[in-house]
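User: Sequence recovery, please. Input:
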């Protein structure tokens, strides 16, 4: 019979995920990360420069994708958060 002390072993608990982006952050698309991605192969090759220059504002985050609103009269887009960097 083993005793249970009520302590939780921290090594077995799930690692905490730190979100690098939040709603309202200003971002731009990292060209190097995007060009080598699966999404770039499935999309138009002639992308507008403003997505790489920024800034765009994050409106929503669902899973790995962020809805971005650009400061131009264009529709909002969903982009993988791995392809985004903070605008400085």
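Assistant: Recovered sequence (88 residues):
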């Amino acid at each position: 019979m083993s005793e249970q002390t009520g302590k939780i072993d921290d090594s077995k608990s799930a690692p905490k995920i730190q979100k690098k982006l939040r709603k309202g952050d200003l971002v731009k698309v990292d060209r190097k990360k995007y060009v080598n991605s699966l999404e770039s192969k499935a999309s138009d090759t002639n992308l507008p420069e403003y997505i790489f220059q920024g800034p765009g504002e994050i409106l929503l985050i669902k899973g790995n994708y962020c809805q971005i609103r650009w400061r131009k009269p264009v529709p909002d887009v969903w982009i993988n958060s791995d392809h985004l960097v903070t605008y400085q």
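The chain has a mean pLDDT of 83.
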